[in-house]
Model the fold of this input.
Amino acid sequence: MKRFVIAIDGPAGAGKSTVAKLTAKKLGFLYVDTGAMYRALTYKAIQKNIPFDDDTNLIEMAQNTAIELQDNQTEYKVLLDGRNVTHEIRTEEVSKGTQFIASLLPIREILWKMQRALREKHNIVMEGRDIGTKVFPDAQLKIFVDATAEERAKRRYLQLKEMGINGDIDTIEREIKERDERDRHRSISPLIKDSDAFYIDTTGITIRQVVAKIEDLYKKTAYKNKND
Ligand code: DC
Done:
């Protein structure tokens, strides 16, 4: 029998990671953050001084990279060629560079293969931009998590503040809108809601409410699958 996959897609800052992590913990599923994989490759390219327009070397680099995502339900680690890069991949420089890595199809294919292999041994909650559309079109449950750009900017602003960084909320909102535009309109794997995905707008509702909704959908789907 196929392992159960909950695919969670949506734009940056919609609350995907928190929701996906909590859902995975509640259900005892493996949590997989695919954005971390694109970030890890971007970080490696920066470290190795490979220019973002050097497709050949970027692809060769990706072919020779080991990425491991460790999830022990309290701590999530990203290992790049065996080295812990969990924090290094969260910088603004990496966030900006991911668009070049994410738009190369051969690189996406390498990561898709790694992502799909995880289902052989685990039930998974996987978050990203193309999980329901490309990685697991046959996922048993697909969720598209969204929030207004204004709300997402506010969340990011508060997150930065907690880290002791004073951001400018208008600049943050503008950057979020620019990133949305790129993610939604790129030719390869654009961010779109799949026709069979449930749409959840997280603006003005709590994380707990979103997780409860997904759990409810999971129970209904699992029950339906059992009785089909
Ligand atoms: O979710 P995130 O912000 O950490 O993602 C980092 C980048 O990777 C972002 O530019 C979108 C891209 N990405 C992607 O193209 N496909 C995915 N499945 C996940 C992330």
